[in-house]
């Protein structure tokens, strides 16, 4: 008989007990596996983020992931290991989801197989298009149900009863229609946290690509006007957190399947923290008072932690 591994995340997700262990009703004086899992998860969240499981949202961020190579698998395994302790159910993808051309024939090898453990446990992925996706295979990715795009090149969705609203952008083509949609969507948002994700970074100190001035010109006035809190991007194959710009926090996470070692310019005035030696992903906690962003290497080492306070 095939053995089933029951993790904190699985028990919380499924609400069941492992084989051979009975559950008991409330008031019996016996702690159920579900209750134990919730207690353990709460303890982890309290220790890691100082938060309350029932009052916040955990999500992960990956970018430039879809290689099908060992680096992608290593990061995916670490994501699953982290989820065993900290049960996130949402992953946002910052583009270049399927190298080299967004080919649907590669979806299984470069997405479904690496993230099988997460997908099997009900984790939802939401993708933004990168240049390798938009230039070649955007139609296939837009219609791929596991990327959560619903056929749209740009879209938004909310989590935790409006605590966080995510806005996915197609930064390969910031046309007038997308700009109009974005302004209207940001203006209408009532979320406590407004989070943007797309492929090309507005601000980045990596040497290969770096900042994108035309996106700064087009997007930053809207971000400032409508009080966007955080922007996640990929494209440069590093992890970086730049100094806040006009009160907005910018993160580059393009090392979830690729890596460009030695590419960060730590003397750039933008640079605040980063890593160009490890493949990585981000684990993010948001509640009513703070957002905590951890960059985690494929071996589990925490590369950086940023705490963002939310005013009244």
For the structure shown, list the relevant keywords.
single chain, about 300 residues, alpha/beta, 2 domains, 9 helices, about 20% strand, globular
CATH architecture of the largest domain: 4-Layer Sandwich
State the low-pLDDT regions, or none: 1-8, 10-27
Number of strands: 13
- The residue fraction in helices comes out at 25-40%
Helix and strand string, N-terminal first? HHEHEHHEHHEEHEHEEEEEEE
Give the helix tally.
Answer: 9
Which class best fits the helix and strand makeup? alpha/beta
The name of the CATH superfamily of the largest domain reads Metallo-dependent phosphatases
Strand order of the largest sheet: 4-5-6-7-9-8-10
Radius of gyration: 19 Å
Strand content: 15-25%
Chain-averaged pLDDT: 89
- What coarse outline follows from CA principal-axis ratios? globular
Describe the structure.
This protein has 312 residues and is of the alpha/beta class. It folds into two domains: 1-51, no CATH class; 56-309, Metallo-dependent phosphatases (Purple Acid Phosphatase, chain A, domain 2), CATH 3.60.21. It is 28% helix and 22% strand. The chain has helices spanning 8-14, 33-49, 70-85, 107-112, 116-120, 131-134, 138-142, 176-188, 213-225, and strands spanning 57-62, 90-93, 124-127, 155-159, 164-168, 193-197, 230-233, 239-242, 249-253, 271-275, 280-286, 290-297, 302-309. The strands form two sheets. It has a seven-stranded mixed β-sheet, with helices on one face. The chain has a six-stranded mixed β-sheet with strand order 3-2-1-11-12-13, with helices on one face. Strand 1 (57-62), helix 3 (70-85) and strand 2 form a beta-alpha-beta unit. It is globular, with a radius of gyration of 19 Å. The termini are far apart.
């Amino acid at each position: 008989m095939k053995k089933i591994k029951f993790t904190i995340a699985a028990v919380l997700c499924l609400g069941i007990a492992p084989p051979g262990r009975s559950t008991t009703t409330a008031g019996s004086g016996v702690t159920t596996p579900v209750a134990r899992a919730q207690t353990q998860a709460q303890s982890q969240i309290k220790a890691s983020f100082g938060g309350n499981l029932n009052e916040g949202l955990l999500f992960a961020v990956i970018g430039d992931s879809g290689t099908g190579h060992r680096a992608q698998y290593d990061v995916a395994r670490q994501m699953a290991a982290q989820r065993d302790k900290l049960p996130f159910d949402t992953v946002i993808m910052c583009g270049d989801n399927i190298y080299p051309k967004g080919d649907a024939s590669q979806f299984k090898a470069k997405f479904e197989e690496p993230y099988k453990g997460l997908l099997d446990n009900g984790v939802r992925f939401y993708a933004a298009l990168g240049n390798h996706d938009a230039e070649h295979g955007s139609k296939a990715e837009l219609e791929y149900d596991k990327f959560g795009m619903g056929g749209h090149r740009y879209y938004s969705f909310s989590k935790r009863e409006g605590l966080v609203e995510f806005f996915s952008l197609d930064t390969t083509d910031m046309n007038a229609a997308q700009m109009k949609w974005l302004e209207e969507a940001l203006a209408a948002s009532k979320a406590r946290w407004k989070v943007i994700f797309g492929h090309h970074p507005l601000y980045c100190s990596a040497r290969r690509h770096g900042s994108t001035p035309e996106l700064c010109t087009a997007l930053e006035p809207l971000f400032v006007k409508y009080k966007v809190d955080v922007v996640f991007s990929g494209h440069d194959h590093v992890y970086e957190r730049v100094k806040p710009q006009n009160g907005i926090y910018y993160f580059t996470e393009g090392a979830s399947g690729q890596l460009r070692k030695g590419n960060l310019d730590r003397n750039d005035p933008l640079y605040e923290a980063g890593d160009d030696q490890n493949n990585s992903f981000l684990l993010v906690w948001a509640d009513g008072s703070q957002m905590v962003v951890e960059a985690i290497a494929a071996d589990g080492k925490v590369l950086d932690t940023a705490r963002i306070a939310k005013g009244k």
